[in-house]
Amino acid sequence: MDTHDSSDIKPAQNDDTLTKLISPVPTTASSTVGAELQGHLYDPVSDIPAPDGGLRAWLVVFGGFINFATAFGLMNAFGSFQSYYKTHTLLHQPVYVVTWVGSVQLFLLFVSGLFIGPAYDRFGARRIMIPGAFLYLTSFICTSFAHHYWHILLSQGFLFGIRNAMLYYPTAGAIAEWFDKKRGFALGIAISGSSIGGIVWPLIVEKIFCKMGFAWTNRILAFACVCPLLVSCGLVKEPENTSRHDTHGPKLKLPRKIFKQICQFQFILFCASQFFIVMGMLIPFNWMALYAQSQGINSAMANNLFAICYAGSTVGRMVSGWAADRLGRFNILTLITVIASVLIFTWVKVDTYYAQIIWVAAFGLFSGGLVPLGSACVAQITDMNYIGLRIGVMMAFCAPGSLTGNPVSGLIQVHLGWRGVHFFAASMVMMGAVLTFWARMLGAGGRKVIA
């Protein structure tokens, strides 16, 4: 049996009975011990090995890159829409009311994983992604006719969030199935598309807003985006040599097995770590421009910090994925989480524009890998029959953090000032690092191995 040496721990196993319940093929002790001694994480043995490369596999990654650059790049451009709403359509609404549109988008993206993840396990990628692409078209068209707050909340809050979930989970699940030893790098390349989109789309949206107005901006974006998304749907596909997406066969997942997959302690612990990481990580993105303005930097220069941060995260996602495949995915995730937390602690001392540029670039570099490595770590301790389910459950754990982090930090800012915001965000991320390391130690069987 080949040893999978692509990370740093194996799935936590309390006894032989639990192993038999959650794994369709018995694990081998010899390969596990070898992986532990090398400081790498052991993959659950699947009935069919991942291709781990080849033209078709990298086309899936390319399709994922197009998907993330289009769908999630525009999600990162929500700030442009929010500025327009506050000065035009929703002029008389309080700021915190307007921000709920973006919060609902993110919350639904995370919580929808409970349903879309298992649907991917059952039906495969295309049967979910193609309707998601057309829902993308529908949501923009509906937004173009929105004149009231509830119109915008439904079209750009609920529809955007659900359609992004229909595009995210099948893409992440398919890439995880195609790759094993290069999984972190492949996911990093694909998800880096969202960072590049986050740089490009706000500039495009601002230009179209100025020339065409709100309604036609949404209609142009609707038809401009559906074409690359359909290309992505054609490229993203799970491997053909698997039967787990057979919609005509008997149901593959018994409720008892699903329960065992969700309730494994190591997995729950890692999901909890992602809750804290997401809650703390999003706060700098939400407050970056406002904090810069509070230090005397004008709004135009402050908004440029987002592009710099996304540029840093593009590099960070690819480099961290490459390093994780060689030094251990849990090891690298723990390391970059600790560094991101330390950076947030130091944020309060950053008070000049050039210092802000250096800080946001560094934060983007080290926070960029948190999302793709989260999915890679889940895949590392998961039987591929349940990859959609487990990624969906992990993201559902993140949903409350994504919804509450910004309002809580807003209250802290009012009562305790910026120092309180920075301390809260850094503490949440550091808690995530501690829990990630604990999950890593559980998988190593208590063996203190640091790659």
UniProtKB/TrEMBL annotation:
Compartments it resides in: Membrane
Transmembrane regions: 57-75, 95-116, 128-146, 184-204, 265-285, 305-323, 330-348, 354-374, 386-403, 423-443
Membrane topology: Multi-pass membrane protein
Record GO cellular component, one term: membrane
Domain Major facilitator superfamily (MFS) profile: start-end pairs: 56-444
GO molecular function, one term: transmembrane transporter activity
PROSITE patterns: MFS
Xref: InterPro entries: MFS, MFS_dom, MFS_trans_sf, Proton-linked_MCT
Keywords carried by this UniProt record: Glycoprotein, Membrane, Transmembrane, Transmembrane helix
Keyword check for Membrane: yes
Family: Belongs to the major facilitator superfamily. Monocarboxylate porter (TC 2.A.1.13) family.
Protein name per its UniProtKB record: Major facilitator superfamily domain-containing protein
Species whose genome carries this gene: Thelonectria olida
